From TrEMBL:
InterPro entries recorded: Diguanylate_Cyclase, GAF, GAF-like_dom_sf, GGDEF_dom, Nucleotide_cyclase, PAS-like_dom_sf, PAS_2, Phyto_chromo_attachment
Domain Phytochrome chromophore attachment site: 140-302
Any coiled-coil regions, as ranges: 497-528
Protein known as: diguanylate cyclase
Enzyme Commission numbers on file: 2.7.7.65
SUPFAM superfamilies reported in the protein's UniProt record: GAF domain-like, Nucleotide cyclase, PYP-like sensor domain (PAS domain)
Species for this entry: Billgrantia campisalis
């Protein structure tokens, strides 16, 4: 900002508050657009008034009454004019058609006046429509961009129109170009990120079209009286006419460019790239042509994002197909480990990767080429500790990331890590690895590239080319694209689900086994608790329970039942003569035969030693004695292999009497049995008072 002191005549000082290009005129008005605050120093040419007067004039004196009123009305309550106003101005002897545009900046209204070009509106419209049609029909990205650069070149007359695509680091690569005349090609070359500083990128939002019709032209100062000069430094940031900075001028000179145009290719979410027009000599660019070029770029951007969406949809379909396979596989419940082995090759193709690792329950399963186990372990612990959110972690430049630095990655430069949340305590991971991809870059501007990128060899000038330097970029893999990251997240979700299903199935199987074991144990326990281990018939505890149940039923319903207690005769002799094992065999055989001969409603139990109890339900005295006699005969017929003797038993019979307890009933049966013993054995005795069945044949 420069200023001059009041002159000798005492007139107030005039300050310079900015600069514009000489291809137009600029006025800064107050918020109501009713008084002039600042004006470009070339306004005397257009108005015929001296500068001192311009700075004191009312807008109507400079723009004409009708235009000034329209301007005032149309900018009221708006941030910019809905459409430019066109007027014809008398300039000197002749007249000139100019376009007036205005926008608000803080509490000021900035008015830009530009001469309209010679091309008729109708011819221009026809041309634009033709190119819009061609752009709308392009079926591939390359075809689309080629059409765009050709169309813009035809409209603007620039010698070289190119499309520069930004990468994730804001380096730009020239991906399409149209040239006219002997101008050097920049196709395939790179512009370093330093050519597109963040500040310049943010200016794109304020004023998307940047046109410098004459790079070398001396800028025109925007002046103000001291009292009106309190302008913000960036007052002119959104002006089309804003003069390029000295650095921009020298940059363009370096490229040998006399005129330039730049229009962003963007969606609401992203700045995809830039369309750049270069002319070796100055080229005036009428506002209508500038706008037409912008319309072409906007149409191309729309088409570009549509084509990309289609391509992404195709890619997602492939991923979906793979996920379907996984879902089908899930029904067969394979382990996550076997899924990796089965689908690994397919995932590597889908994600352009060379290796994949699934970290599941602390176990690592890999397919393809992956880092060493030690490196993987370290990577997973670092991810666990440092990557706290649910989204993916990724890098194309592993050496430069703290997460992957210092790991023996064996030539792997790209890592995409997807956290799989299976339980709340610990995460599993799906890891994809990409190899290094050495790339040769041609930098459009020497010097600027060196040091910008890590791991790259120093940039070398290319022999025979002035504007390109060659650089070998190493230590990087191809970048993980957004759509690939999203697809990997989907795959991760499926894997987590498959792992959960498998895990649940495994736990269920274990639970089933445990239940089975528990049931077996219970069965064994019951066997132990209720059955005699030698003979397999009920033990004393169980038969006592049964007697109690029968006593209760008899007490309640008056149902008569009998208890038969029998004891093998002279059993000791068998043991003594033929051994204890023979004694055991005899007891088993005896129990088996007696048990088999009983009715389903009667019960046999071992009372202890060689003594057994038969509980005969619904049995009266006669039937009980009959049963005793039947058993006596049956026992006498029992033959045991290797035993040359016959076996006999003494049987005591007692019948339930009202008021009986287990003890009294058993006691009577025991006494009866004792009597049978004393009467000579091998006989049935009824309790006291009953007639004994006679034995011996
Ligand atoms: N082998 C075998 N012997 C048993 C078992 N339980 C008891 N004994 C034996 O059975 C015999 C019973 O002998 P005693 O009570 O003298 O009666 P006994 O020899 O049958 O004579 P009486 O009952 O008077 O006819 C003892 O020798 C016990 O050791 C068993 O489970 N297996």
């Amino acid at each position: 900002m420069t200023s001059s002191s009041p002159d000798s005549a005492g007139r107030p000082a005039i300050r310079t508050i900015g600069r514009i290009q000489p291809c137009g005129w600029l006025l800064v008005l107050d918020a109501e657009a009713s008084s002039v605050l600042q004006a470009s120093a070339n306004l005397p040419e257009l108005t015929g008034l001296p500068m001192s007067q311009v700075l004191r004039a009312r807008p109507a004196e400079l723009l004409g009454r009708r235009l000034a009123i329209r301007l005032k009305q149309e900018i009221k309550g708006r941030s910019r004019l809905p459409a430019p106003l066109a007027i014809t101005r008398r300039v000197g002897e002749g007249s000139m058609k100019v376009q007036v545009n205005a926008h608000r900046r803080g509490d000021r209204v900035i008015v830009e006046i530009e001469p309209l070009g010679p091309m008729g509106q109708r011819r221009l419209m026809a041309l634009v429509n033709e190119w819009l049609r061609r752009i709308g029909e392009a079926e591939s990205r390359d075809r689309l961009l080629d059409t765009l650069v050709e169309g813009v070149a035809q409209l603007t007359g620039h010698d070289r129109v190119l499309v520069c695509r930004f990468d994730a680091d804001w380096h730009g690569k020239v991906v399409a170009e149209h040239r006219h005349g002997p101008v050097a090609s920049l196709l395939g070359q790179h512009f370093p990120a330093s050519d597109f500083p963040a500040q310049a990128r943010s200016l794109i939002e304020q004023n998307p079209v940047r046109s410098v019709p004459d790079v070398q032209a001396r800028p025109v100062e925007v002046l103000a009286y001291q009292e009106n000069s309190g302008a913000m430094r960036d007052d002119l940031a959104a002006c089309v006419l804003r003069a390029p900075s000295p650095e921009q001028v020298s940059y363009q000179e370096h490229l040998g460019v006399g005129a330039m145009l730049s229009i962003p290719i963007q969606s609401q979410q992203e700045l995809w790239g830039l369309l750049i027009g270069h002319a070796m000599a100055p080229v005036p660019l009428a506002p209508a042509i500038r706008e037409a070029a912008r319309a072409l770029v906007q149409m191309a951007a729309q088409r570009l994002f549509l084509l990309r969406a289609r391509q992404e949809a195709r890619y997602l379909q492939r991923v979906q197909d793979s996920r379907d396979l996984l879902t089908r596989a899930r029904r067969r419940l394979p382990s996550p480990e076997s899924l990796v082995q089965r689908h690994g090759a397919e995932w590597l193709a889908l994600f352009r990767a060379q290796g994949v690792t699934l970290v599941h329950h602390g176990q690592l399963v890999s397919f393809g080429q992956v880092p060493s186990l030690e490196a993987l372990d370290t990577l997973v612990s670092r991810l666990e500790a440092q990557h706290t959110h649910e989204g993916p972690w990724y890098t194309a430049n592993a050496e430069m990331q703290a997460m992957t630095q210092g790991l023996a990655l064996d030539g792997i430069c790209g890592v995409l890590a997807i956290p799989l949340r299976l339980n709340t305590q610990r995460r599993d991971w799906l890891l994809l690895f990409r190899p290094e991809q050495v790339e040769t870059l041609y930098w459009a501007v020497p010097g600027a590239a060196a040091g910008d990128r890590s791991g790259s060899a120093p940039a070398q000038p290319l022999p025979g080319r002035h504007s390109a330097w060659r650089e070998e970029v190493s230590g990087r893999s191809i970048a993980w694209e957004r759509i690939e990251r999203l697809a990997a997240m989907d795959l991760g979700e499926d894997l987590a689900l498959a792992a959960s299903v498998h895990e649940i199935e495994r736990l269920n199987a274990r639970l089933h086994q445990e239940q089975q074991a528990l049931a077996d144990a219970n069965r064994r326990l019951e066997q132990l608790a209720h059955f005699d281990s030698l003979t397999g018939v009920w033990n004393r505890y169980r038969i006592e329970q049964a007697i109690d149940v029968e006593l209760a039923a008899a007490e309640r319903y008056g149902r008569s039942f009998a208890l038969l207690l029998f004891d093998a005769d002279h059993f000791k002799r068998i043991n003594d003569r033929f051994g204890h094992e023979m004694g055991d065999r005899v007891l088993r055989e005896l129990a088996r035969r007696v048990g088999q001969s009983l009715r389903g409603c009667d019960h046999l139990g071992r009372w202890g030693g060689e003594e057994f109890v038969v509980l005969a339900t619904e049995t009266d005295r006669e039937a009980a004695v009959g049963l005793g006699e039947r058993l006596r005969r049956l026992i006498a017929e029992v033959a045991v292999e290797g035993l040359p003797l016959s076996i006999t038993a003494s049987i005591g019979v007692a019948l339930w009497q009202p008021g009986d307890s287990r003890k009294t009933l058993v006691k009577r049966a025991d006494q009866a049995m004792y009597r049978a013993k004393t009467l000579g054995r091998d006989r049935v005795c009824l309790e006291d008072g009953g007639a004994d069945a006679s034995p011996v044949t």
